[in-house]
Input
Amino acid sequence: MSTSEQEFPAQSQPRPGSTEDMRPRPRDAMEGYVGSGKLAGKVALVTGGDSGIGRAVAVGFAKEGADVAIAYLSEHEDAERTAQLVRAEGRRAVKIAGDLSVEAGCVQAVERTVRELGKLDVLVNNIAYQAPTESLEEITTEQLETTFRTNIFSYFWVTRAALAHLGEGSSIINTSSINGLRGNRSLVDYSATKGAVNAFTYAMAQQLVERGIRVNAVAPGPVWTPLIPSTFPEEKVEQFGADQPMGRAAQPDEVAPSYIFFASDALSGYYSGEVLAPVGGETMPG
Output
């Protein structure tokens, strides 16, 4: 893809968004990616695995030999498409619908993964909620709680439930954001949760190193997923990602390899407590 390619017409969707209705549709099926057995015999749980980054990660894992559980809220058509793509690679796929912003939903996702796929080796915490605002005064307590329960509480709850099943050689990968690294004036609460994801990653990497469980994070810049037209006003969708040095947003397929890297002990066995940031050429101090 050209570094200057950027063609998103003005559009909007109701939450939580649908891949089918996006124009253009994201590149999220890892077409052309050739696996080499880096995750052979592994079982992965990907929260928010129905679409966007989660879909590309699930398919990439399947191409590398993993069976995949896909946890999602209510996007049944998107989740079924992801499951089809996983099964097309000869791997098992389990769809788990439920609200991960509550603890019971997180526990259920882990329990169903282990019950239906037999074990758990790789956990990807990936669900996210955002609601742009122009000032702090616009952020209601309800919105604040929703953002934190979705973006960081769920990561805590799913990870805590998963630890009973993870062991030596397991990997936990958390989805952060460039906004957790440098903030975003219109996404104050979202940025705060993504900063928390980074700190959670650092702390858990320290806590789990003696158990042989690696914990890392991926902090992408702008990525073309259903979250964008379902949360931003149409005029911002049109310009989404255009301010990046590469002049465009990423496609999910361009971000998913970062997760494959962290999931594979052969590739990243000496990495834990790292935040990998595919951000389209943006550089930040520190």
